[in-house]
């Protein structure tokens, strides 16, 4: 069997696809031949990305505005993807939020609830809908990739609630991988380190914090979103056909220092 990173003929959903890591993954997938549903809360955001990607390959990208922190909208998103593109082969759970930046004991419950709704419940709702679709069709094979975080592997000072949701995502990834393996549905996670995105701006814009992180990172810098897209491509493609239940850490060597 030849090793291939091609996604030709595949249909993917990328949540949180209007910017940052999600946009980079969507672009990478289109370049590798997939048709992609780009989802995010705001219509203008997903339409802007879809316009750019359809410029690369006409008809490759469908924008869908959806709030994945709401169960009904997760169900509608998957149903729309199937209606417009005929199927779903790949799910990239990437939508995320981090409204509380500060000591864990200072968090208020609305921020706690919002973080869990988007970062954990939304991932589960999306994974469930896609898995049910994959199980119901003749060709059951598919891939679910959850974008977690190094904050779910290590301690997460000043990002405690965010870190908890990402640790739970990793646990969910392993359980779903075991339970869906018999259906040839692979479930893996990516744990990025510090990436230059709007979500990480509270840290990347703070000279003291980012200097400390860079000193502890073997490569001495933060990642760009495109550098995470390659990991998603590997886990979504047949190149990783015997890989499931794994957490691929992409942190520039933060853990080893």
What would the keywords be for this entry?
257 residues, Rossmann fold, 8 helices, 7 strands
The DSSP helix count reads: 8
Helix content: 40-55%
Largest sheet: 7 strands, parallel
CATH architecture: 3-Layer(aba) Sandwich
What is the approximate shape? globular
Could you report the average pLDDT, rounded to the nearest whole number? 95
Number of domains: 1
Radius of gyration equals 17 Å
CATH superfamily: NAD(P)-binding Rossmann-like Domain
What is the end-to-end distance?
Answer: 38 Å
The run of helices and strands is: EHEHEHEHEHEHHHE
Class by alpha and beta content: alpha/beta
Physical arrangement of strands within the biggest beta sheet: 3-2-1-4-5-6-7
* CATH C-level name: Alpha Beta
Strand tally: 7
Q: Low-confidence parts, pLDDT < 50 over ≥5 residues?
A: none
CATH fold annotation: Rossmann fold
Strand content: 5-15%
Description:
- This protein has helices at residues 20-31, 43-56, 71-85, 109-136, 160-180, 201-204, 207-215, 226-236; strands at 11-15, 35-40, 61-65, 90-93, 142-147, 185-192, 247-250.
- The protein has a seven-stranded parallel β-sheet with strand order 3-2-1-4-5-6-7, sandwiched between helices.
- The protein has 257 residues and is of the alpha/beta class.
- The longest helix has 28 residues, at 109-136.
- It has one domain (11-250): Rossmann fold (3-Layer(aba) Sandwich), CATH 3.40.50.720.
- The mean pLDDT is 95.
- It contains eight helices and seven strands; from the N terminus they run βαβαβαβαβαβαααβ.
- Helix content is 44%, strand content 15%.
